[in-house]
Amino acid sequence: MTEQDKDGAIESIGGGWGTVLAARLGESRCRSLEDFLADAWAGQAPVYPSRSHVFAAFDATPLDSVRAVILGQDPYPTEGQACGLAFAVPVGVDRPLSLRRIVSKIEEDLSCQVPAQATLETWARNGVLLLNTSLTVEAGKSNSHRGRWRSFTQAVLEVLAEQPRQIVFLLWGADARNKRRRRLIDNGRHIILESAHPAARLSAMDPDSFACSHPFRDTKDLVDWTLD
Question: What is the CATH number of the domain that holds 64?
Fold first, then answer.
């Protein structure tokens, strides 16, 4: 297997995830997803994030360190923004609307000032799994790979729901919230908070809006939400 082949292999995912997820998915579903990724990268249209960053969230946050999960939709479909961590962008890249609203919510909930160059990598290193329901997207086409990742995301959530320690799940947006409706993480050990997606066009007064939620304030005693 070449290094490029390994980039798309489920079993090669780091952080103690690969073997567990490969076993959960089974050989057939692993192969189907790996074949899809190979075809996507060989196609004409750009796919984000880059091949080497698709599973970056798992490399950054090992399975045994997960204390919280932020579940979003899919990667940013604009060149240079997606980095494999949900809602995050690389250092030096302007924050998209979703991330700007997340940063504003942190500052509101925790009465702090987030540094201008802060990234979400701090969270990933501190046990916050930054996971999208789809891990790839075709350039300029949000939700274009939505169905391809359903089994994979389900496997990740099932593994986390079975962990004996308490985990905080923040579900942002319809795709993420649907995972609770399907009872994938409806477990009494864990804390589950839901809201609309940070970028959703809802009134700030709508009780379902991200603006009306307080995910960081409500979980600050359980998770270190510091950004530096």
Answer: 3.40.470.10
208 is annotated as an active-site residue: no
Q: Please give the single-letter amino acid code of residue 41.
A: W
- The DSSP annotation for the chain comes to --HHHHHT-GGG-TTTTHHHHHHHHHHHHHHHHHHHHHHHHHSSS-EES-GGGTTHHHHHS-GGG--EEEEES----STTT--SSTT---TTSPPPHHHHHHHHHHHHHHT----TT--THHHHHTTEEEEESSS-EETTBTTTTGGGGHHHHHHHHHHHHT-SS--EEEEESHHHHHHHHTTSS--TTSEEEEE--TT----TT-TTSGGG--HHHHHTTTS-----
Residue 1 has pLDDT above 70, yes or no: no
Number of other CB atoms surrounding residue 66 within 10 Å = 22
Residues 53-82: pLDDT tens digits? 999 999 999 999 999 999 999 999 999 999
> What predicted TM-score, i.e. pTM, was given to this entire model?
0.93
Q: Is residue 225 part of a domain?
A: no
Q: Is residue 227 one of the residues assigned to a domain?
A: no
Tokens of 14: 């780091």
**The one catalytic residue among 59, 64, 74, 218:** 74
Counted domains in the chain: 1
Residue 28 falls inside a structural domain: yes
Spatial CB neighbours of 217, under 8 Å, sequence gap ≥ 6: 109, 110
Tokens of 6: 């390994």
Could you tell me if residue 150 is inside a domain?
Answer: yes
Alpha carbon of residue 185 to chain centroid: 15
